[in-house]
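FIELD: query
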Amino acid sequence: MVRILNFLAILLFLVAGLMVVLRLTLLRPHHNEYSPTVIVPRMTVAQDGSGDFLSIADAVAAAPNYSHDLFGILIRSGVYPEAVRVPVEKTKLVFIGEDSTVEADKPADRQAVAYLGRPGGEYSTVVFIYCFLDRVVSPQGWLPAGANESVLRTLYYGEFQNRGPGASTVKRVTWPGFRVIRQASEARKFTVASFIDGKQWLPQTTVKFDAGLI
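FIELD: result
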């Protein structure tokens, strides 16, 4: 009888140990495929010929189709007068630009209206910091696009010290999740250093960046 009890005690101990191991395994954080550490350039576009391609379109065409991993294309400083189309099969493609500015090939129609974004789902986050917003930006800033109350309540859309004709926040949306950021301490949470831990991995890409607020 004593042997049976000892055997049962050992068995229960082993089962408990196995449950602990399984619990630790299940609670172990999964690798995030969108971690900044995996966004590294695989190709370089440079007008001076020092890269793999002279045009962005050629680099996009050479990128793999239906990639399972993030595929970075580094775009060196320069003027690229081209229309860039990214086909649907070019999945997980990331452009990494040096001092980038995207401009239309002709002055924008003064009747055109643009929005800073629209709700993509619950807890979506978009922040504009130190940006130049031209007159084409709608006074309301953000497009509802039929989002429900839960989305509008949980999202975080913010603007901090932007400039330009479209930067006024007087007529912005009144969603619960939208805010005009007043404190630098709040804006600092969304800087390169804080939000994506850029100081740990961006230096390896040779991309120029400002880690914190200017």
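FIELD: remark
The helical segments are 2-27, 56-62, 149-154, 184-187, 192-195.
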